[in-house]
Amino acid sequence: MGCLLGCFALLFPRVLLFIVFLSGNYLSRAYDTNLWPLLGFFFMPLTTLAYAWAVNSNGTVTGIYLVVVVIAALMDLGMGGKGAHDGRKKWE
Fold first, then answer.
1. Could you tell me which residues come within 8 angstroms of residue 77 by beta carbon, excluding any fewer than 6 positions away?
2. Is residue 87 included in any domain, yes or no?
3. What pLDDT, on the 0 to 100 scale, is given for residue 68?
């Protein structure tokens, strides 16, 4: 079941983040306020989910948990990168 949620998170991170927010206190245990999950919903949803998972699983973001959060941040930053490539290709 956890693997299925992980695949779902990669495909639809905002939907899963919204479901996690509504289903319980998983995000509130990781974040002090609701401001950070709200900002994460709009700007970096995978990083928000990865950070919440790391804090709820380990208590801190160290070791392999830090690696997962960094990879999620890189994936979030890379999701919008193809737009410039397509724009250049369109004008050629």
1. 44
2. no
3. 94
Rounded to an integer, what distance in angstroms lies between the CA atom of residue 6 and that of residue 75? 14
Q: Which residues constitute the domain of residue 9? A: 2-79
Question: For residue 84, is it within any domain?
Answer: no
CA distance 48 to 38: 9
The reply to whether 56 falls in a domain is yes
pLDDT in tens, 11-67: 888 998 999 999 989 999 999 998 999 999 999 999 999 999 999 999 999 999 999
**In the chain, how many domains are there?**
1
User: Is residue 49 included in any domain, yes or no?
Assistant: yes
SS3 56: helix
pLDDT at 91: 61
Estimate the crossing angle of helix 35-43 against helix 45-58, to 10 degrees. 140
Does position 87 have pLDDT exceeding 70, yes or no? Answer: no
